[in-house]
Write a structure and sequence with these properties.
By secondary structure, this protein is mainly alpha-helical. Helices cover 76% and strands 0% of the residues. Helix 2 packs across helix 4.
């Protein structure tokens, strides 16, 4: 039986892989329009990572234990970008990552109120 947590874990691993690939690519694809703003990309990516982490680890009640590793992942990306040579470390990227996590914290209860029933309906739980 597929569970929301199992599905979220798979999506979380995929999202981390895609984000890491985009972060370390010499010429990552660029989105046109609104999402052609790097800091907004960081905010959106870390908001999505936070949502996926929330659902991937439903029994972990300490939100900080869910989100601090994501902030560490953001720092790791910046350090790796520094070392690849064709990208660079930017503190504002880390700030944008943190903003995405804080946006999730702000929207968490409302998000759960609307998303949880949809997940239950789709999975038949």
């Amino acid at each position: 039986m597929i569970t929301a947590a199992r599905m979220a874990k798979v999506l979380l691993v995929l999202a981390i892989g895609v984000i890491l690939w985009l972060a370390l690519s010499a010429n990552p694809p660029r989105a046109a329009g609104l999402f052609d703003f790097d800091k907004l990309n960081h905010l959106a990516a870390f908001f999505v990572l936070a949502v996926l982490t929330e659902y991937a680890f439903p029994t972990l009640t300490a939100v900080a234990l869910k989100l601090l590793p994501l902030l560490g992942f953001g720092m790791l990306i910046e350090v790796l970008q520094y070392w690849v040579g064709y990208r660079y470390f930017e503190w504002l990227d880390v700030v944008a990552d943190l903003a995405g996590l804080l946006l999730f914290l702000f929207a968490r209860k409302t998000l759960r109120r609307y998303v949880d029933p949809v997940i239950q309906k789709v999975l038949g739980a």
